[in-house]
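In the previous chapter we treated chains in isolation. Here, by contrast, the input contains two separate entities that must be folded as one system, with a combined length of 564 residues.
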Amino acid sequence: MWRDNLRAIYYIVLKDIKTYYLKPPSISWGIVFPIAWTLAFYLRHPGGFINLIPGLIAMTILFSTTAAEAVVINFELRLGSLERLLLAPVNLSAVLIGKILGGVVFGLMMTIVITVGSTLVLGIYPNYFHLFLIIIPSLFVFASLGALLCVLVKEVFEAQTLLNLPRFLMIFLSGVVYPISAMPAALRYFSYILPLTHTVNGLRNAFGAGSNTTVIYEMLILFGFFLLFLIPAVKLLSKKFE
Amino acid sequence: MNDVIIKVSQLTKVFKDITAVDHISFEIKQGEVFGFLGPNGAGKTSTIRILTGISKPNQGSASILGFDISSEMVRIKKYIGVVPEISNLYDELSGLDNLIFMAQLYGVPKAERKNRAEALLEMFNLYERKHSLFRTYSRGMKRSLTIAAALIHNPKILFLDEPTVGLDVMAARSLRNLISNLHKQGMTIFLTTHYLEEADLLCDRVAILVKGKIIATDSPARLKSANQDQSVIDVVFSNNVTPLINQFADALPENKITAIDNNKLRIYGGVPNKVYHNLCVIAHDNGLEIESINSIKPSLEDAFIKITGLSPNIMRTEKGKK
């Protein structure tokens, strides 16, 4: 049975990448938006641009993984094509993992472009192994967060609206552009329950920018977030077919 | 031909306070075309969704090819093909790519995928449009491709949920021929329909389903013969006779009268000659002109009306319409 599930996951990812992710709307959300956002901050403070790189990578992970979740889940639910997948010899969690993994693969492609591009241009040398330890679980966390929010609602536009809430909340409160240490105490504590904070902390660590936590600690927290989003997403999707 | 391939026992599905499927039991034999016949909301789709692993029953059990649906659904799915009510393939993929994607999901060996997909496209007269996107297909073509997708892994059993709903006459006829051909090739087919003539034409046996309960299961021929004890007469007037239906009922107390149209009545039972005479009298007294009177053979629709007590109009209502 696990072979059936793995095979289905593989082909769902390939199909989703081909039909949804490698299309202009996803690419613009996944890559153009984080770059435009970062450039806006660069023009304001050109001197501190290097410090923005972990935030830029974190934003790319966040936006690219969630760029097409509403389409791959809500649109397919509406058309019945997600149900079509469940008619194949595969279980529901494998279908959802396939949907999440599509976001992960696309996010990884976008993140590699941004990371390699920015480090080469700026001549900075992060710890690539540490980057890997943070980027991979982060991709899973935000793709599964996107999946969870999408299965909560019915329509594509509802999902897009709902996704924007954590996206923008996390940009401002997770240390992407404003240091968490400069925030009021209440917001500082709040920021630690946001997964993007742990991505940014881990990335800062990998870039040697200083952080009071370790990469392994952040990675474990991110893994916890992944399960926290994945398990209810599977249960909610299962309920939709009851 | 006598091997039981699907066995359902006391299957029940409840949605909040609605019992969609109410303790139904039936068996389907290998090579048989078995139809679920009933109006919209009778529980046909709910049953098919349970048997194909989309939803779970609240009570009861079922086995397909000897495998239990509650514990071995993934294994069962390898041997069944399902055509849902909605043609739900991918708009963004071509006909060929849709079939190849389905072949990938079902684990069809790589070397065989394209050949099988192209053979099915030929069989369903879609080969010329194999590179066109699914969204550009007509409704009938979409339905054909959805059936082709359900056959890509050579299933032993085909589930068809309302296969011809929404199709024009020609497309529906062509699809019924395809289903007949699959039956001739020995495939076991479980279909749901609310078209009485479709069930009559295609099915070896039908189960009549009303409000989640099976109220009769037999071959269409036997269901019809059970109704042959009474005559059925269709009478067409040149005027609207619906305001006078009570008057007809009073004049023909031994008969059951149904308005088929504004100017057409169907009269069940009684001695035909006496019915003809009484009809002429009522027509004369009310200044009505009779256009035609025909004594007709009982159809599955007549059997359905007799068994269920429902109006045939309820079967003509499409899903989502009143």
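The mean pLDDT of chain B is 87. Chain B touches chain A through 24 residues (CB under 8 Å). Compare these points with the single-chain example from earlier in the chapter.
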